[in-house]
# Entry
Amino acid sequence: MTDIPKSHPRYASLVARERVTNGVKKGYTSSQGLIAQGRGECFDYLLGERTMPSAEAATIAAAALLLLAERPALSVNGNVAALVAEEMVALANALQIPLEVNLFHRSEERVKKIADLLREKGAKEVLGENPDASVPGLEHARALATRGGIYDADVVLIPLEDGDRCEALTAMGKKVIAIDLNPLSRTARKATVSIVDNILRAVPNMAAQVRQLSARSRVDLERMVQEYDNEKVLRQAVQEIQDHLVEQFREDTN
Ligand code: PTJ
# Structure
């Protein structure tokens, strides 16, 4: 890995680049993952590389949904594996739920490498190597899913997912939690709860919320979910980006 000094103003962003590049070198991240990371970086820059209030609200609703779920599952792709493998394992273990490797550019070799990485990080249950079902409305490889995991889950966390799959999972009646830095993406607009934040911040924040809310009653958690309005939160995210840019411009011109 390139030696990046901690004092560098773009330290976090450079470390993330290194992790995704390393994921490609090790064979668990796709080369397209580099482009996805670049797009994400751009949105993160626009929102000031911090967790905005809209993302905090979405994270609370997401944690409540996961705690209320009967059969939740967490999806992991090549970028997620490169950036937050350990944190996803910690979240799955805290909730005692499975992780499922689910790839957009599927190759059996990459699925196995990611599954091995998750097991190495301490995952108790990793699915995805032997899919036995198909998500309706998607073409072959992208449709593959596993019973006991994403296929029959009632709540699914899909970080950095494409719009088609998000829509297909929602059409199956699942509650879908997306993590996507782009508030305008189809994924963000189709999901039940969209966290507009960098996955590097969003997954640890979600684990903290799960810990905090785990003592709350089902009635309280249900109220949090009912009061949540994803469209309103996405509008708020766009407004927060706009406000940040105006503020930035003022600082630069003063
Ligand atoms: O490993 P695979 O084959 O499953 O492929 C994974 C990628 C991410 C390459 C694939 O799902 C893909 O092409 O995704 P998209 O359609 O490029 O969408 C990725 C979305 O994630 C975009 O809206 C980005 O803004 C967003 N994104 C990228 N990096 C981050 C992010 N969101 C949160 N945190 C990030 N670090």
